[in-house]
Amino acid sequence: MGSIGASIATTGDGDLAAARRAVWKLAYDFAASYAYRLPAARETFEYLDNNDPCAGPDTALDWWFKDLAGCCGRSANLWLHWVRLAIAVEWNRVVAVAARHGVTVTADRPPRPAANPPFVLLRGDVWSAGASGLWGDDRHLPLTDLDAPELAAYEAARALCACPLCPRLRPDPDVEAAMVARMSADDAWYLSRTERKSPQTLAAIVRAAPRIDPYGDAVAAVRRYARELPGAWETLMALAAEPGGGLAFDGLLNLVTDRPPADRAALEALIRERGAESADDLLWELSQL
């Protein structure tokens, strides 16, 4: 295999080397927030000790992962998958980071990629789920060695990647239910980056905000989630009318510039009715938009 890579089309005369490093750090931090503390992924992070994705000529915004003489194909493919996921999910940040270094991204936002091959966690390791079996960096697990639950997990992963990121990014229903039930600041962060969003999960983040961090992670999660959820305006208006739904106003203020005048007037009326001691601050914020 040699090496595999991801790239983003750009233009401009900025500091391409700095932009490559900055976007790589963004992608690394994104993957690490899901997988770094997972023992099964330790080997994949250690792989980076021998592979610098930003090595090579600074002629493009790209990142390369070597298989290290055929010994680390699983880790190379897994990092390529994670970088592509990070770029797709955090696209607006990627574009902004590149711009800070004078590099203009000319590509359109990519779709969230499917892993090819997909991955699965079994026996305390992350495996590449190939058509003929499972592969680690220096080991192979034939399908004939799998018991019935392991074979079911392998077959499920062949249909939907089960690496440490994908189940939370889709999210899988059981994974989403667990995050909603627990709803820590980390869970709100993960949920705001999911591909499939629902009014029910947005409501759960808003209602949990006073407990998790109403002025930090929760605000950012509500704003991001609402931006990507069709019908979020109506959901947030209903939540803002509830006792304890104050964080819904932050989401509404983040959406109001794209709404018709009648919606702005309705929001102002609701602030006056439900804003209580924060009404003056909310009305001032609204006047600045």
- The portion of residues assigned to helices is 40-55%
- Class computed from helices, strands and strand pairing: alpha+beta
Largest sheet: 4 strands, antiparallel
Order of neighbouring strands in the sheet with most strands: 5-6-7-8
Given the structure, what is the number of helices?
14
Provide the gyration radius in Å: 22 Å
Average predicted confidence as pLDDT = 93
Number of strands: 8
C-alpha end-to-end distance? 53 Å
- C-alpha geometry: globular
Q: State which percent range the strand residues make up.
A: 5-15%
Q: Low-confidence runs (pLDDT<50, min 5 residues)?
A: none
**Could you state the order of secondary-structure elements as H and E?**
EEHHEHHEEEEEHHHHHHHHHH
Task: Write a structural description.
The chain is α+β, with helices and mostly antiparallel strands and about 290 residues long. The protein is about 50% helix and about 10% strand. The protein contains 14 helices and 8 strands. It has helices at about 15-35, 40-45, 75-90, 90-100, 150-160, 165-170, 175-180, 185-190, 200-210, 215-225, 230-240, 250-255, 260-275, 280-285, and strands spanning about 5-10, 10, 60-65, 105, 120, 125-130, 135, 140. The strands form 3 sheets. The protein has a 4-stranded antiparallel beta sheet with strand order 5-6-7-8, sandwiched between helices. Strands 1-3 form a two-stranded antiparallel sheet. Strands 2-4 form a two-stranded antiparallel sheet. Helix 7 (about 175-180) packs antiparallel against helix 8 and helix 13 (about 260-275) packs antiparallel against helix 14. The longest helix is centred in the N-terminal third of the chain and has 20 residues, at about 15-35. The model has no long low-confidence stretch (mean pLDDT about 95).
